[in-house]
Amino acid sequence: MKRSLTVNILLALTLLALVILVALPFWWVVSGSFKLPQEIIARKPTFFPHSFTLQHYVKLLANSAYTTYVGNSLIVATFSTLITLALAVPAAFAFFRLRFPGRRTLFRVILLAYAFPSIVVLIPLFGMFTKLGIIDTLPALVVVNVALALPFSIWMLRSFFAGVPKEIEEAAVMDGAPPTVILRRVMLPLIAPGMASVAIFAFITSWTEYVFASVLIISDAKRTVPVGFAGIIGQYQIDWGLLLAGVVLAVAPVVILFAFIGRWFVSGLTEGAVK
């Protein structure tokens, strides 16, 4: 009993430490974005703001193209997420259900895409996109982001398909349902957590991608948040208030995404489905 209580206390303290470790930087960024410049750079830091101002947000939105960068990132991340899901779901289902020669080998080869740094394919992709005439366009970033997120998404969704009880699929087959109907009406509702995970993964990957966006995009009007925001910070030197305000606005879409589909991150949707 004492050991159990001690273990619970240690686990609680460990969890509290992890929460503080993760939440403290976010609190520091959010609270700092509302502080006056002199309070931000004060020698004695303040945990709670002694002042309140929106001047950093006003300066960021009024004197820069930050809203354009956010709009571009939203377009790229949204289309990248939708296309990744549209391709990963049937591909993962095919690897899970269909039996064809070389299935296991092909599945492993797909995962080899993560064995090489993305910078290795930057120059070949630039040459290819130049010939296609899509340099300095948002579709170029969508193609790159889908290619980066798709292999891991297929692997993740295949694991979710494998977790669905076989009795459910067998019952649908006995009822005469073809594979497309089984996928659309039976499997998709049961792998909703997996699709939510893939959506969040693809969205964050697209939202934070910097290397390809900095090379494939030339004009300022087509830049995404990571590249455009880096230019703003360089333009205004080290304006810490501007920096903190930009970080808050950049993180906001990801937080909103979690708020809408985070509830799908629960287990047991298939519990009792056979009955």
Itemize the secondary structure elements and their pairings:
Blueprint: H1 2-32, H2 37-40, H3 55-62, H4 66-97, H5 103-111, H6 122-132, H7 138-162, H8 166-174, H9 179-190, H10 192-208, H11 211-216, H12 225-235, H13 240-261
Would you mind describing this structure in some detail?
The chain is mostly helical. Helices cover 72% and strands 0% of the residues. It is built from 13 helices and no strands. Helix 3 packs across helix 13 (240-261) and helix 7 (138-162) packs antiparallel against helix 10 (192-208). The relative contact order is 0.14.
Our Rg estimate from Cα atoms comes to 23 Å
Q: Helical element count?
A: 13
Alpha-beta classification: mainly alpha
- The sequence of SSEs as H and E is HHHHHHHHHHHHH
Gross morphology: globular
* Average residue pLDDT: 82
Main beta sheet, described?
none
- List low-confidence stretches: 266-275
Tally the beta strands.
0
Task: Name the beta content range.
Answer: under 5%
Q: What is the CA-CA span between the terminal residues?
A: 39 Å
Summarize the structure.
The chain is mainly α. The protein is built from 13 helices and no strands.
Provide the descriptors you would attach to this structure in a database record.
single chain; 275 residues; mainly alpha; 72% helix; globular
